[in-house]
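Budget justification, computational time. The allocation requested in the original proposal was used primarily to generate C-alpha cells for proteins on the priority list. As evidence of use, we reproduce two of the resulting records. The first is shown immediately below.
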Amino acid sequence: MRKLLTGLLIMPSLLWAAPTDELLSKLQKLESMKGQFEQMVLDQGGTHMQEAEGDFQVARGNRFYWSTEMPFEQLAVSDGNTVWVYDKDLEQVVVRPLSQDLGQTPALLFGGKPADVAEAFAISERSREGESVTYRLKPKGSDPLFDQLDVTFEGDKPRSMRLQDALGQQTVIDFRDLMINTGIDAALFNFVPPEGTDVIQQQQ
C-alpha cells in the first residue's frame, strides 16, 4: 500500500515536469535561427486589427534582429544589453536597456538561456498532433506584457507563437523559411543609427 501511495504522489509531478523538460530540450538545441515572419493582431472576437511581415535573426546571448517591412519599415535590434528600435519614416531611433524579464520580451524565448524560461514561466502542453506540439507558457512574474504565450514546434523547429494579453487581444507570429544553427554575423546585432537620425534615450 505504501508503494502504491508513493507512486500516486510521484506520477502527477512527473507528468507536469515532462512538457517543461521537453521544451527546454528543444530550446537548448537552438544556438541561432533566422527566417521570415508574418504577424497578425486579433481582437477579442478574432477580428484582424493589424498585419505585418518581415525577416528576423535570433542568436544565443539575448541577441536579435527583427525587421518589419510591411505595412511600414521598422527595425528592432539587440546586442544582448541594449535595444534599438528604428523607425525609418520618422527618422528616429529609441534606445533603451534590454529587459531581462522574459515576460516583457518574448523574443528572448529563443535567444536567452533555456533554464531562465523554466524560472519565468509555468509550462504545460496545450496540444500534440504527429510531430507538431504546442506548449503553453504563463508568466510567473508580476505585470507581464502578456497573460499567456503558446509556442508551436514541428519537430525541433519553432513554427509559430501566439500571445494573448489581459484584454483577450492576440498577436500571432508564423515563421517561414526557417534556418536553424547556420551561423549569424555578430555585427548584425550592433546598430549604428543613420546620419541625421533623432536618437531618443530611454531608461528601463
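The second record produced under the same allocation is shown here.
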Amino acid sequence: MSWNLKEIYNALNKRFKHTENIEFEKVSIDSRKISSKDFFIPIVGENYDGHNFIDEVSSLGVKACLIERKKNYLVKNSSIHKIFVSSTQQSLQDLASYARKRNKNLHMICITGSSGKTSLKDWAGKVLNEKINTYVNPGNFNNEIGMPLSLVNMPLNTKVCILELGMNKRGEIKKLTKISLPTISIITNIGLAHIGNFEKPKDIAKEKASIYNNLNKKSFALIPNDSEYSRLLIKKAS
C-alpha cells in the first residue's frame, strides 16, 4: 500500500478525526482504469469534470476521494469518504510534494529540454534499475497533472526517481521543479518548441533553466554545452 487516509489528511494539512484509516494501493484520476483499492482524485479539465464520475467509482468499490466543495452537489452516493478541498489539481500537487519529501534518501533526477526527454528518461531508467530500485514517470506524464500523479504513485522503496518535466507555458518548469526537488537536473537541449507561448527563444532557455532553481552544493546540473544559451544556463545553475 502506498498511501493511507491519515497520510492524505496530513499531506493536505487537514485534521484527521476518523477511526478507520483506509489504505490505498495507488492514486488514480481515471475512472476507466480505477480499482476498488485506489484513492480517486477528480480533475477538472477544459472539456471534462472528474466529479461527474465519483458516483461511478464509488459503485466500483472505491472508498475515498477528493472533492471540490462547490461540486458536492454532483455526488449522490453518500458511502464514499469525501475530503473537501478548494482545488483538486492543487491538492494533487500537494500530495506529490509530500510524497517527494517523505522519501528522505531519494536521488531525484529531473529532465527537461525541447526534445529527447522521454528517450533519456527511459534509457537511464533501464540502466539504473539493473543495480538499484529506480522509478520513472510512465510515458510522457510530464505536465502539471501527469508529473505529480507519477510522483504520488512512486513506490516507497524507490532509491532513484527519474521524472520528465514538460513545458508549454511560462512558469511550468518552475512549479514542477519546486514539487520534485531534483538532486540532478538535466537539460537535453534548447529548441523552438512552444515558441508561440514566448516572446523570443531566449525566454524558452530562461524557462528551462528553472529546473536548476532548487539545487544545492551537493547537486548536479547537466548542461548542453553546444547550445547558444549555454552561458545563460551555466549562470543559472551556478
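A brief technical remark on that second record: The longest helix spans residues 88-102.
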